[in-house]
Amino acid sequence: MSQDSFVSKATLEGRTEEGSARRLRCLTIDDGRSMKLAKEPVCYKDEVVGYVTSAAYGYSMSKLIAYAYLPGNVSQGGAVEIGYFGRRIQATVSAEALYDPKMTRLRG
Length: 108
Fold this sequence. Notes:
This protein is mainly β. It is 7% helix and 44% strand.
């Protein structure tokens, strides 16, 4: 089999990231103290549009980071809410990849 042909080639042809119905998005929790686990609902404009797939504290960024598959219309910088034990926690759709290239946060 050549590099230009594979089983799912016909399925993937013509697809672009912009045309994807759902995308894995990075979320940063705005309050900086609410912990998430996974499977919490993510709301956009008062409608559940996805669920948290994973979450952890980003020590170099000093923020809680979560990931969720969200519709393509939820853009970077957009505000979302994560349901957590009956309340909604504010979060922001962030750009990938979250890192501190100059290590200014780590070194102070």
